[in-house]
Amino acid sequence: MSDDAHILESGKVPTPFSAAEIRQGCPAGRTVVVRVEDGDGVRHRLSRFAQVDNDGALFERADCDAEGTAVGEVTGSRVSWRDLQGHASFSSASTTCDESSLAFPLGVEDCLRYVVNEGADETTFWFSGQRPGMPVKVTFGRGGQVLSTTVMVSDRVDGTPRD
Length: 163
What we know:
- There is one protein chain.
- This protein is mostly beta strands.
- The protein contains 2 helices and 10 strands; from the N terminus they run αββββαββββββ.
- Strands 1, 2, 3, 4, 5, 6, 7, 8, 9 and 10 form a 10-stranded antiparallel beta sheet that branches.
- The N and C termini lie far apart (34 Å).
């Protein structure tokens, strides 16, 4: 393994954030709402960090309304910061990465854009340097057609918007 905290294993591109950067950027109470648009329509999903410590957090998820109020069951599981970092550890053979400015519901932010091609499938992830952790936007396409878009519409810590 590399001495670079952003490279988890040989043959992978550097991740946008180290586990330590994700830990720093995801305090207890951080709650993110994303809007998902796909062939099934539009829906919202909430993700919340609870019971945070040096190793990881209780990560809660639920379907929600557009304002972020959970509808239905809130489920949770323990995740490590390194496991969360690993979600963005992509194969260097199928991934390109560049810098990109992205306009999305929370503003215009400088991002690292990862484009992952696997056969006819192409998934693009935008990670904002201001929001360590999950991507602020993800598109999935096949054969040149976008099939789904997920975009961050709210990012708060204990009810206070993050800048």
